[in-house]
Amino acid sequence: MRHTLSGVPQDDAKHSVENAVEPFPVATVESQSEYGEAETKVLDQFVYLLYALLGKSVVISPFGIANSLFLSIHEQTREFGLLRAVGVTRAQVRRMVRYESVVTAVIGGIMGIGVGLLFAFLVTESLGDPGRRLRAPAGTARGLPGARVIAAAAPARRGARLQVFGALHAE
Q1: Residue 81 to residue 98: CA distance in whole angstroms
Q2: Is 15 a member of any domain?
Q3: Alpha-carbon distance 133 to 15, whole Å?
Q4: DSSP letter (8 states) at residue 169
Q5: Based on CB atoms within 10 Å of each CB, which residue in 5, 32, 82, 162 is the most buried?
């Protein structure tokens, strides 16, 4: 039997409060630890939802990168043809496209991580619970640029396979 500060046993106090709120069917009586557990469950569901969205973005982002690189190669067909005509090898064209992908991935990754951490900090601070800390999923952040570089492989091959004379007559 635990006692509260006023010397009344906690179970008796809880029973009295439950009787007082009985006319209000929506109201529930919880101890501080029960309330904390309920709030933690709600926050955990929210965090799992965010992890699911993060997982979807990891799957979808390489398609977006590949699509933008395909469009970039289509727009640069003439430039690639000119470069090939002056002696640039296919491997060098592939490398150029991969570097473009790396630059895009790094800039997008830095901006995405920065904005994500800012929002995570704001949400954590708005909860006002000193027991909650901001934790960033570092493993996921490290894997995103690699996925984007892998997504650049097909567009890089396509850019390297352009026929020199056909590319020069493009547009």
Answers
A1: 17
A2: yes
A3: 35
A4: T
A5: 162
Q: Does the residue 2 lie in any domain?
A: no
Residue 86, helix vs strand vs coil:
coil
In this prediction the pTM is 0.55
Terminal CA-to-CA distance of the chain, rounded, Å?
Answer: 85
Residue with more model confidence, 82 or 146: 82
Tokens 């954590």 sit on residue: 124
- 8 Å CB contact between 82 and 165: no
In a domain, 164, yes or no: yes
Q: How many residues does the chain have?
A: 171
101, 151 contact by CB (below 8 A): yes
pLDDT digits (tens, 9 = 90+) for 116-154: 888 888 887 787 766 667 676 666 656 656 666 676 676
* Count of the separate structural domains present in the chain: 1
